[in-house]
Design a protein that fits this description.
By secondary structure, the protein is of the alpha/beta class. The protein has four helices and four strands; from the N terminus they run E-H-E-H-H-E-E-H. Keywords: Arsenical resistance.
């Protein structure tokens, strides 16, 4: 059975959504991806949507919406995106913090950098899961 991974941050509108989209695109054979936050947003970050569409041809507006922690199933791995405020807590067998800066309100260049960084980290996470480097 594939492990379930939750990407969490406060608003679940930008970085965690990008991580969920890229996980589903690249690593759906390794783990199931979810994203959630502690506060809902009416829409997910449209700059993130545009950049992910440009770079990866994935339309997050179709399948993604802001979700609360209670809206997702229980998970095996929690990845905190990086919060300067109190990070949400979700119980899991493995928890890590990627410490990513929030690109909201910044240039496309920052969004692209964040997306590429998330892609790299998602692939690394999948590799660690495959190599049993993460105890589940």
């Amino acid at each position: 059975m594939k492990p379930k991974v939750a990407f969490i941050c406060v608003h679940n509108s930008c970085r965690s959504q990008m991580a969920e989209a890229l996980s589903k695109l690249f690593e759906s054979d390794v783990f199931e991806a979810y994203s959630a936050g502690t506060e809902l947003r009416d829409t997910i970050n449209q700059d993130a949507v545009r950049i992910i569409k440009d770079l990866y041809k994935v339309d997050m507006n179709k399948e993604h919406k802001s979700k609360l922690l209670k809206d997702i199933p229980s998970v095996d791995i929690v990845v905190k995106m990086g919060c300067n405020v109190v990070c949400p807590f979700l119980p899991a067998k493995h928890i890590e913090d990627w410490g990513l800066e929030d690109p909201t309100g910044k240039s496309d260049e920052e969004f692209i950098k964040t997306a590429k960084n998330i892609e790299k980290k998602v692939k690394d996470l999948a590799k660690r899961i495959k190599n049993k480097e993460i105890e589940l």
